Amino acid sequence: MLELGEELGGTALAGSLQGRPVPWGAHYINVPPAEADCVHALLQDLRVITGYDAAGRPQVVPAYLVRWPHERLFIEGEWVEELDPFAGAPAGEVEVLRQFEDQMLRWTLYQGRDGRRGFAMPLRYSSRDSILRELDQLTMLQYLRSKNWNSPRLDWLVDYACRDDYGTPLDQVSAWAGIHYHACRFYDRRLRDQYPADTLTWPEGNGFLVRRLAERLAPPQWRSNTAVVRVEPAAGAVWLGCMDTRSGELFSLRAKSAVYAGKLHTVPLVVQGLPAPQLQAIASLSYCPWLVAAVQVSRLPQGKGAAPAWDNVLYASPSLGYVAADHQRPPGNNSRVLMYHLPLVRQVARARRELLEQDHAFWAGQILADLRQAHPDIEEVVERLDLYRWGHAMVQPLPGVIWGEGSRLRAQACGALSFATCDTTGLPLFEEACFAGIRAAEECLERLGTGGETLLKGLADG
Ligand SMILES: Cc1cc2nc3c(=O)[nH]c(=O)nc-3n(C[C@H](O)[C@H](O)[C@H](O)COP(=O)(O)OP(=O)(O)OC[C@H]3O[C@@H](n4cnc5c(N)ncnc54)[C@H](O)[C@@H]3O)c2cc1C
């Protein structure tokens, strides 16, 4: 394994501030739905899922469940418990929310003519029914309006979810992806007893899963600070040109079979000889940049209303608010690092340039101005503010990305080279990265003639 960064992790990278772990990127997952065979296998292997009850519901290590209070929302001048912008909303808007929730429940329970769930996880296990495929041709905003749902609060709720999980706003994200967020897990309170959808998180975020995975590897099996700068796939081999990023030393390797697991936007710069349609499919992907800040505070900043939670969301903000990095530590601790998230979802090419060009003072000013609306004393308590800039944080599931012709081409092996990363399927999620990685690994094993039983039984079912 050849890794460009100093550490393993990629977008699930964990860092350390004053000896305390912080998540610089991905920071949570959910209990996977029943059909997510490969995710179950991995989480059992990593000792996150410890067993199953008589009804087949997974049991997880209790310390990994997000602690209460889970979330709060700053709206109309005060913090309210949970992510509920509907408190005090006019009856008409509450009715729209009910209709939306009922429809998402129907999609959650939808079984296709092919016997598959409508919105499964991994997404490749989903039903092929045309009524579903058509949803990938419109935006989520068009879908909401096609149902005559006109509610600024519902728009906000759905937009927030899509910016958070997909780095893509309501008026740009594929309706299939937007619905998948609400329908792939059993979030609805009416289903809560049937199957869990709990959030799992760790002080270092998904860096915890990276560390558990890396425990299996000894140094000769991987090297960091290594850029793969050229990949030449052929029928029986893959040639790799590499550079040690510290010394500048160049070296080459020959592999019988290889997986390219870097984000796909790098492929045209690195991989040689791909067919033009595949290159075109890859080049047409769009990525949202993202700014993450670790705001260290001397004490929790004050704010009117509900008590601090793990996820602290701002209604009137381009940001997603912040996650308290210390929240999973023993109760009673005074959370000291707030992980602030700003996905730059509009005009992504311009935003990426701005993210690169603007300096620390600029971004610190923007962040503190945003937080000040909820915490008037924020400047008094900030001790230090570190930034992490993600130029290509998340692949954007725009209409057609998930079920269009390009999705098949993106995942297509070339000679002895397979492609992983969640970009191949089109949703920037841990579960999709897990699926794509296992699929690519199984392709390699098959090439080498050592393939065993597949972990991806859901690809064949139905
Ligand atoms: C800020 C942020 C928050 C997120 N939050 C969540 C979350 O809470 N939950 C969730 O499920 N998902 C979240 N995600 C999405 C996250 O991207 C996925 O969960 C998952 O980590 C994607 O993994 P990947 O393997 O597809 O890609 P990556 O994480 O991008 O991994 C690609 C790896 O390839 C390496 N690489 C690239 N090019 C080269 C090269 N030429 N040579 C050598 N190495 C190279 C990179 O350094 C990197 O380590 C978040 C993403 C970001 C950016």
Structural notes for this entry:
The protein has helices spanning 37-45, 91-109, 130-133, 140-146, 152-166, 175-183, 207-214, 267-270, 276-283, 348-357, 360-372, 378-381, 405-410, 430-447, and strands at 14-17, 20-23, 28-30, 49-52, 58-60, 71-75, 78-81, 199-201, 226-233, 238-244, 250-255, 258-260, 287-297, 311-314, 322-324, 337-343, 382-395, 417-419. A hairpin with a 4-residue loop joins β9 (226-233) and β10. It is 29% helix and 21% strand. The model has no long low-confidence stretch (mean pLDDT 95). By secondary structure, it is α+β, with helices and mostly antiparallel strands. It folds into 4 domains: 1-64 and 202-220, no CATH class; 73-201; 225-285 and 398-459, 3-Layer(bba) Sandwich (FAD/NAD(P)-binding domain); 287-395, Protoporphyrinogen oxidase, mitochondrial, domain 2 (Polyamine Oxidase, Chain A, domain 2, Alpha-Beta Complex). The strands form 6 sheets. A 7-stranded mixed sheet has the order 7-6-14-15-16-13-17. The protein has a 3-stranded antiparallel sheet with strand order 9-10-11, with no helix packed on it. Flavin-adenine dinucleotide (FAD) is lined by residues 2-5, 10-12, 25-29, 227-228, 261-263, 266, 270, 290, 292, 390, 393-394, 421-422, 428-430, 433.
